[in-house]
Specification:
- The protein has 7 helices and 4 strands.
- By secondary structure, the protein is of the alpha+beta class.
- The chain has a single domain, classed as 3-Layer(aba) Sandwich (Pathogenesis-related Protein p14a).
- Strands 1-3-4-2 form a 4-stranded mixed beta sheet, with helices on both faces.
- The protein starts with a helix and ends with a helix.
- InterPro entries: CAP_dom, CAP_sf, CRISP-related.
- This is PR-1-like protein.
- Keywords: Signal.
Length: about 180
């Protein structure tokens, strides 16, 4: 009986972990992603984005890997933003990207999360989230053993991934795609 109960708890835990990474964004989450993006875009006189399940699935594929780095085209040749934090929600993730607006200099434009969010030629977005363990543990530690120990103690974080099509941050096109 005890073995069955333990097996059930383990199976249920694995199922719940799998559901987060398989089902993708709910209708309410899709709306939240779009609302947050479009609020920022309207301030920049950019058209509203539309949701793309294809981009959302690509974002989920990358988020499921729980790797704190860009996919570099592994899930598609789209623009991409990443955010992660222990108490981060959808609005907080997009706010982090939007807050980079203060660093944007139209006379010397540089790639940023902000410029991808507001890029005028971008028409579609798809996003995903995954709770990851040890995502930031060990960052900056020189020994692998110390890094692994640190990762084990690090709290789980939510990692947000958004994919954008057409991609933004195209050299030579900032003037017509980013208002400031």
């Amino acid at each position: 009986m005890r073995f069955c109960l333990i097996s059930f708890v383990v199976s249920l835990s694995l199922a719940l972990i799998t559901i987060e990474g398989v089902l993708g964004a709910t209708a309410a989450e899709k709306k939240a992603y779009l609302d947050a993006h479009n609020a920022v875009r309207r301030k920049q006189k950019a058209n509203d984005l539309k949701w793309s399940d294809k981009l959302g699935n690509a974002a989920q594929t990358w988020a499921n890997k729980c790797q704190w780095k860009h996919s570099n085209g592994a899930v598609g040749k789209w623009g991409e933003n990443l955010a992660a934090g222990t108490n981060l929600d959808i609005n907080g993730a997009i706010k982090m990207w939007a807050d980079e607006a203060s660093q944007y200099n139209p006379k010397n434009p540089e790639y940023s999360h902000f410029t991808q969010v507001v890029w005028k030629k971008t028409t579609h977005v798809g996003c995903a989230v995954r709770t990851c363990n040890g995502l930031f543990g060990g960052v900056g530690l020189s020994s692998r053993k110390d890094a692994e120990k640190s990762a084990e103690r690090a709290p789980p974080v939510k990692m947000y991934v958004c994919e954008y099509n057409p991609p933004g941050n195209v050299a030579g096109q900032f003037g017509q795609n980013v208002s400031k």
